[in-house]
Amino acid sequence: MYVQTVLTVIALSYMIGSFPTAYLVGKLNGVNIFELGSGNMGTTNVLRTLGWFWGAMVFIVDIGKGIFAVWLGKEIAAMNGDVMSQASAGVISALAVVVGHNWSFFATIITGSIRGGKGAATAGGTWIIMMPAVVIVIPMLVMLSVVALTRYMSLGVLVSTTTAALVIGLLVGMNELEPVYLLYWLVGVMVFYRHRDNIKRLLDGNERRVGEKVQTH
């Protein structure tokens, strides 16, 4: 029963994460998001290519994917009693939904190649539902401060992801969170991996800043 519950949580969370929000928004606007800007299926690329409104829509839905997946995972754990703790279900759901967003089944079927986003918004959704309110504020303020000062969205994401990892380690060390939450660091690893090209551009000094538009035609 434990294995069945874990596999169910992973499968459902992955499929939720795979929902290709940015691709569908692009199609609504008559463009293929994979052929524009960075070619990434995420908020920042939509914001640059289609504007703030559509970027905000993608951001909200992708955050919602993270929230919904973790909520559903915990509900499945609750229905199965003591088979799987809600903490474990939440962490496993978080990992699976970010994997789904980053390497989307639906986007792969549509394009014929493994495609997806970079996981930041979806990871943020999992953070919102998993962490105490006071803890949520810290990485959020860090990200907003970095973006406001530098106008580099990618840098804001990377610094806030690192901050979130440090906060989790601190809370586990203080026995405020169960040790299973340390697996959440893998979400941060995925976010950094998917931002590897951004990291290179940041180091080279040619990363695009917030507000820089990309031609869609």
Please characterize this protein's 3D structure:
The protein is mostly helical and 217 residues long. The chain has one domain. Helix content is 71%, strand content 0%.
Short overview:
This protein is mostly helical and 217 residues long. Helix content is 71%, strand content 0%.
Features:
0% strand; 71% helix; 217 residues; mainly alpha
Helix content: over 70%
Spell out the helices and strands N to C. HHHHHHHHHHH
Rg, alpha carbons: 17 Å
Instruction: Give the integer mean of the pLDDT values.
Output: 90
Distance between the termini: 53 Å
Number of E-type strands: 0
What proportion of the residues form beta strands (DSSP E)?
A: under 5%
Shape: globular
Number of domains: 1
Q: Helical segment tally? A: 11
Oligomer: single chain
Coarse structural class: mainly alpha
Summarize the biggest pleated sheet.
none
Q: Could you give the topology of this structure?
A:
Layout: H1 2-18, H2 21-28, H3 43-50, H4 52-79, H5 86-102, H6 105-111, H7 120-130, H8 133-150, H9 153-173, H10 185-194, H11 196-204
Helix pairs in contact: 1-4, 1-5, 3-4, 4-5, 4-7, 5-7, 5-10, 8-9, 9-10
